[in-house]
């Protein structure tokens, strides 16, 4: 059984941080309202609107803001993705405390989420604050229920390769993870369930990223593969997946998990089960709360 750390609660003190791309006030405001409507006490870190080109300020400033926020808030929620999280890894890795509030985000934030999850710290692969208003009303309601522990963490999808397996869940954005391969910050995936999603990448680049993972031996180590939305129609994605991914590994497709209005939330670093039979896949977290 796994234990989900970092469930939200009404009145929790949430600090909105910007570890990656530059943030516009107008883009952030609707998401802040949603969090406040959920009964959360929301604070925006003073450095969120800093800019250095496409980044939300200098690397060291963003890293210091994240560490400071971890001491002062109960929850850290990324304003947006974009790019820049990986640049903070060598600044944060030596200084991470043993206790860290849950960090929520996805996409480029995958670099930070996996670093924390490998240390046993609580993280959620969840919509960023700027992405929350893009969710459908149903997905927004489900996201809140999942984060507050009011709904079981179970996801239904399309079966691609049959089998039953289990392990801790790691992963996130395919391009981000592929770029970390060969660095000290790529997560250990032996016996893990690997989740992958991406956006706006042409098919040949997705092929490149997946082939990179395959040639490195990473895909031989995982227990199973969880595919989210990869940004292209299934008719283009499925032939590539069947050609590149190891067929002996259980694999399911969950096309609503990605940069889509149906995106919800799930924890990383927590034990889960994948069951694939025929054209059906079921991914569930065995939670001991």
Automatic annotation (TrEMBL):
Signal peptide: none annotated. The keyword Phosphoprotein does not apply. It comes from the Bacteria. Residues 14-126 form the LD-carboxypeptidase N-terminal domain. InterPro entries: Carboxypeptidase_A_C_sf (IPR027461), Class_I_gatase-like (IPR029062), LdcA_N (IPR027478), Peptidase_S66_N (IPR040449), Peptidase_S66C (IPR040921), S66_fam (IPR003507). Keywords: Carboxypeptidase, Hydrolase, Protease, Serine protease. One of its GO terms (biological process) is proteolysis. GO terms for molecular function: carboxypeptidase activity; serine-type peptidase activity. Residues 166-274 form the LD-carboxypeptidase C-terminal domain. It holds the Pfam family Peptidase_S66. This is LD-carboxypeptidase. It comes from Thermosulfurimonas marina.
């Amino acid at each position: 059984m796994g234990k989900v750390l970092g469930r939200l609660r009404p009145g929790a003190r949430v600090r909105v941080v910007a570890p990656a791309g530059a943030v516009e006030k107008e883009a952030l405001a609707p998401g802040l309202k949603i969090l406040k409507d959920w009964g959360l006490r929301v604070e925006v870190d003073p450095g969120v609107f800093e800019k250095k080109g496409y980044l939300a300020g200098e690397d060291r400033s963003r890293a210091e803001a994240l560490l400071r926020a971890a001491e002062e808030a109960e929850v850290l929620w990324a304003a947006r993705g974009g790019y820049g999280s990986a640049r903070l890894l060598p600044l944060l890795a030596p200084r991470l405390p043993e206790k860290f509030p849950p960090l929520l985000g996805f996409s480029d934030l995958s670099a930070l989420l996996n670093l924390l999850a490998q240390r046993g710290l609580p993280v959620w692969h969840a919509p960023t604050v700027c992405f929350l208003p893009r969710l459908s009303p149903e997905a927004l309601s489900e996201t809140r229920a999942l984060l507050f522990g009011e709904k079981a963490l179970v996801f239904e999808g399309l079966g691609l390769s049959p089998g039953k397996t289990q392990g801790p869940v790691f992963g996130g954005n395919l391009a981000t993870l592929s770029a970390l391969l060969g660095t000290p910050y790529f997560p250990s995936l032996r016996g893990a369930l690997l989740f992958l999603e991406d956006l706006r990448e042409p098919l040949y680049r997705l092929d490149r990223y997946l082939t990179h993972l395959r040639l490195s031996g990473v895909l031989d180590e995982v227990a199973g593969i969880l595919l989210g939305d990869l940004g292209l129609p299934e008719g283009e994605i499925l032939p590539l997946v069947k050609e590149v991914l190891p067929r002996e590994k259980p694999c399911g497709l969950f096309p609503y998990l990605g940069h889509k209005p149906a995106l919800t939330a799930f924890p990383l670093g927590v034990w889960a089960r994948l069951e694939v039979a025929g054209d059906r896949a079921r991914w569930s977290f065995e939670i001991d709360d």
